[in-house]
Design goal:
Elements: H1 8-12, H2 15-39, H3 41-48, H4 54-71, H5 77-108, H6 114-155
Helix pairs in contact: 2-3, 2-4, 4-5, 5-6
Length: 166
């Protein structure tokens, strides 16, 4: 699977879906501000790190994919869940990259110039995200191969007790 830039989703998204994302993101940001005012910026920052629009995006993505498949006369439930799941996996990979970025800044900022710290942390984020993506792809391919081998063995009436299905 290659990463590519696709703008077709912009045309498929309805105006109110953008509004939902905007309102949800604003509410999470406002909540983080309230928490920071009450319990300090360290705790408020944890809430601000919450991917504010992810829940709204995942549910809207699932709904749009389901609707698209149903228009073609196919059941769209599985496709919608798979799309939302892939979006969640991407968000998780991005979050791991951001954690690596934050740890790099936290550990190096007192000792090095800001520009150097941010450049280094950005490089760490990029490497972490790309490596995590590649590892995830290898694991997905391996999982498909294991399931495929199990399916072939079951179809031929073979012994499946030694196969490990993931």
């Amino acid at each position: 699977m290659k990463v590519k830039f696709d703008t077709s989703g912009i045309r498929q998204t309805r105006w109110y879906e953008y509004l939902i994302r905007f309102v949800f993101g604003g509410a999470v940001t406002a909540l983080a501000g309230i928490v920071a005012k009450r319990w300090g910026p360290e705790i408020g920052g944890l809430f601000l790190a919450f991917p504010a629009i992810f829940p709204a995006t995942a549910t809207l993505l699932q709904k749009n994919e389901k609707r698209k498949k149903e228009r073609l006369g196919e059941g769209g439930g599985t496709r919608g869940r798979e799309s939302a799941g892939l979006d969640a996996a991407g968000a998780t990979i991005g979050a791991l990259g951001l954690i690596a970025f934050a740890l790099t800044v936290w550990q190096t900022l007192p000792n090095y110039p800001l520009a150097l710290v941010l450049a280094g942390a950005t490089l760490v984020w990029l490497v972490t995200s790309v490596m995590t993506w590649e590892i995830w792809q290898v694991m997905r391919r391996h999982g498909r191969a294991s399931r495929s081998a199990a399916s072939r063995a079951m179809a031929s009436g073979g012994d499946t007790t030694r196969l490990r299905i993931r």
